[in-house]
Design brief:
The chain is mainly alpha-helical and about 250 residues long. It has one domain (about 5-240). It contains 12 helices and no strands. The longest helix is centred in the C-terminal third of the chain and has 32 residues, at about 185-215. The model has no long low-confidence stretch (mean pLDDT about 95).
């Protein structure tokens, strides 16, 4: 099956001049997934979709975002059938459970072992999320698209080199992806462009935050804010990703 390339939305993200185009994409894709799961299209009423959500479930973070989204009936339908799935699995786990025998060595451990069957089942449920899984698959396609454009589109490459760089979180992903997606002959050129880009933009954010601190000095009360008015949220984003100033994403009326 041919892999889908997302050239238009990736170019849109780059043109948005955000602190990180992948943060921009992440927010957009996650909102699209929330709209799909709970939005006016009523995907939650379709048996095949709810079968998938019943099986995968949702992580704590996305349950919170689903609650904030505001579709009470949609969330109730999803929870109704998901509970039946979880209770059925739980009964099977309970029926086959046998407590492990603990040795003196186990008792002396500072942290408990990971061999308890019920604990392992719960951890597996916590790690499974319908939205996370679909986002992960889509995100991988965006990584493919980034390197496709980097190799094929001179204008895209220029925009990246002259842009604001990436948050550290997504920059780490980008560097790891480069190892498998770029030919060896092109890796040196890629990193020789990326490292100065990141250094320059990290310094820029550092200066914005520092000037915000200086603005609280009474001697600077009449000075220009420069680019520091939103330095806190941009500074946090640059270090960890995401949009700290965003409110909950809600269902459109």
């Amino acid at each position: 099956m041919n892999e889908q390339l997302y050239t238009i939305p990736l170019n849109d993200a780059v043109n948005a001049n955000d602190e990180c185009p992948f943060c921009y994409i992440e927010r957009s894709v996650e909102q699209d997934l929330l709209d799909f799961v709970l939005g006016s299209g009523s995907s939650y009423m379709e048996a095949d979709i709810r079968e998938m959500t019943d099986k995968a479930g949702f992580c704590r973070q996305h349950f919170q975002k689903m609650f904030d989204y505001g579709n009470t009936l949609g969330n109730a339908w999803i929870l109704k059938t998901h509970y039946k799935k979880v209770i059925g699995e739980m009964k099977k786990e309970f029926a086959g459970f046998k407590p492990a025998k603990t040795s003196i060595k186990d008792k002396l451990k500072k942290t408990p072992g990971s061999g308890n069957a019920i604990g392992m089942w719960v951890r597996k449920k916590e790690e499974s999320c319908y939205i996370c899984r679909h986002f992960k698959d889509t995100y991988a396609r965006y990584m493919d698209t980034f390197f496709y454009l980097w190799e094929q589109d001179d204008e895209f490459r220029r925009k990246i080199k002259e842009g604001k760089g990436f948050c550290l979180h997504h920059f780490g992903d980008l560097c790891e992806a480069a190892d498998g997606r770029l030919p060896n002959r092109d890796k040196e050129d890629f990193y020789s462009a990326m490292f100065p880009l990141m250094e320059r933009n990290m310094e820029r954010l550092s200066e914005d935050v520092s000037w915000m601190v200086e603005k609280f000095d009474y001697r600077n009360k009449d000075a220009d804010w420069k680019n520091s008015k939103d330095a806190i949220q941009r500074g946090m984003q640059k270090l960890k990703g995401g949009y700290p100033a965003d409110g909950p994403y809600k269902m459109s009326k």
